[in-house]
Write a structure and sequence with these properties.
Structural class: alpha+beta
Number of strands: 7
Radius of gyration: 17 Å
Strand order of the largest sheet: 1-2-3-4-5-7-6
Shape: globular
Largest sheet: 7 strands, mixed
Length: 198
C-alpha cells in the first residue's frame, strides 16, 4: 500500500513541472542532507518529537554516523567524514548529551533524528538520510529554540558544517565567517553562526 501511494504521488504528466522543495535542506549542526525532492507521502506517516530516553543512545550513534557519512558526502571527503564520525563513541555521546536539552524524532516507529542544546549553543542537529526532507530537522531545531526562549535566552549560536549552513541560514542564523575545526588531526571547515531571539 505504501509503495502504491508513493508511485501515485510521484506520477506526473509531461506538462506538469517537478515539485519544488520549500526548505533548502534538512540539516544538522554538523550534518545535513543535500537538497532533493521531498517525499509527498511523508506527511501521511506519523512522527513525533520527544525527550531523550537512555535506551535511545545506540540508535542516536547510528544516526550521527550515517548523517555524516551519507549526508555530508558532497562537502567533505572520506577521510574527513571518517574522522568526524569517529569523534563520538557510545560513551562520549552519553557524556555530551547528559548536559542541556536533547530531543529525538521518531518516524514510522524508528528513531531518525536528534538535536541538542547547551544553554545558548545549538550543539547538534542530526537526521538520518532516510528521513530527510520531511521537516524533521526543522521541528527538532524549533523545539530547542522554544526552550531557549522560555529560559530567557536572547540569542543562539552554533558551528554549522558546510552541509548544514543553508539549513541554519533558513532558520534565521547569520554566518560570522568560516573557521577550521579539527577531528582526529583532520581539518574540517565550518561556519560560526548566530541568531538573535529578540
Amino acid at each position: 500500500m505504501l509503495q502504491w501511494l508513493r508511485q501515485l504521488f510521484h506520477r506526473r504528466t509531461p506538462s506538469q513541472p517537478a515539485p519544488r522543495t520549500p526548505e533548502p535542506q534538512e540539516a544538522a549542526s554538523a550534518a545535513a542532507t543535500p537538497v532533493a525532492e521531498a517525499d509527498p507521502i511523508a506527511a501521511l506517516m506519523p512522527f513525533q518529537i520527544r525527550p531523550l530516553d537512555s535506551s535511545d543512545m545506540a540508535d542516536l550513534l547510528g544516526v550521527f554516523r550515517e548523517a555524516i557519512q551519507i549526508s555530508a558526502a558532497a562537502d567533505y571527503d572520506q577521510q574527513q567524514r571518517d574522522a568526524w564520525s569517529r569523534a563520538q563513541s557510545y560513551d562520549s555521546l552519553i557524556s555530551v548529551l547528559s548536559e542541556g536539552d536533547t530531543v529525538v524524532a521518531e518516524w514510522d516507529d524508528k528513531l531518525v533524528g536528534f538535536a541538542h542544546r547547551i544553554r545558548d549553543y545549538i550543539n547538534m542537529v542530526f537526521v538520518h538520510p532516510d528521513a530527510s526532507r520531511v521537516g524533521i530537522a526543522t521541528l527538532l531545531y524549533q523545539h530547542l529554540e522554544d526552550g531557549a526562549r522560555i529560559e530567557g535566552i536572547t540569542e543562539l549560536t552554533t558551528h554549522a558544517s558546510l552541509t548544514a549552513h543553508d539549513f541554519f541560514a533558513y532558520m534565521g542564523f547569520v554566518s560570522e565567517g568560516q573557521e577550521q575545526a579539527e577531528r582526529d588531526g583532520v581539518p574540517l571547515t565550518r561556519h560560526a553562526m548566530r541568531k538573535s531571539l529578540v
